[in-house]
Amino acid sequence: MASHAGGVQTGVAPGHAHRAVSGWLVFAAVMMIFSGLMNLLQGISAIRTDRVFLVTQSYIFQFDLAGWGWVHFGVGIALLLSGFAVFTGAMWARVTGVVLAGLALIANFLWLPYYPVWATVLLIIDALVIWSLCAGPSRGGAGGRGEMGGRSETGRGEMGGRGETGRTA
After folding, report:
1. Torsion angle of alpha carbons 7, 11, 15, 18, nearest 10°?
2. Distance of alpha carbon 108 from its chain centroid, rounded?
3. What are the helix and strand counts (H, E) for the chain?
4. Do 6 and 125 meet the contact criterion of CB atoms below 8 Å apart?
């Protein structure tokens, strides 16, 4: 029983590396949506100046609490939308996700004095998102070269970038 009719599958062992790699993109997308929602809610709480946050007096990156709220609100919306885009698997969505997760990581690091535990949780999530987006389909399983590292799609081994052409010595 064939898995696909007449098609030649290149570079991936049937049912092996592709499943694990797409799982990392799904993980990244779900975590981006979660992080986006949490940043969005954190931003709304800060804009409303809830008494949930610790306001320090001598912090070098001190903004008005509402200012930090708008930063987290914007980062949250961008992460949320980018998380849905990562489900498409497009390279632009992955690159955008890495950039936005990096910005969220910086924003949450600067947010540490206001809400230390939650900022630390979001720092870890953002770091995992960056890692999982960078470990996407192009780096999965057997490195995108099939089951045996140096095989081309015709099945002949490659030596130094030159295929075996049958030359005699």
Report:
1. -120
2. 17
3. 4, 2
4. no
Sign of CA pseudo-dihedral 65, 69, 72, 75: negative
Confidence at 165, pLDDT banded by 50, 70, 90: low
pTM for the whole structure: 0.66
Residue 155 has pLDDT above 90, yes or no: no
pLDDT in tens, 85-121: 999 888 999 999 999 999 999 999 988 887 888 889 9
Q: What residues contact 39, with CB distance under 8 A and at least 6 apart?
A: 72, 73, 75, 76, 79, 104, 107, 108, 122
The DSSP symbol for 34 reads H
Provide DSSP, 86-126: HTTT-HHHHHHHHHHHHHHHHHHHHTTTTSHHHHHHHHHHH
CB 76 within 8 A of CB 43: yes
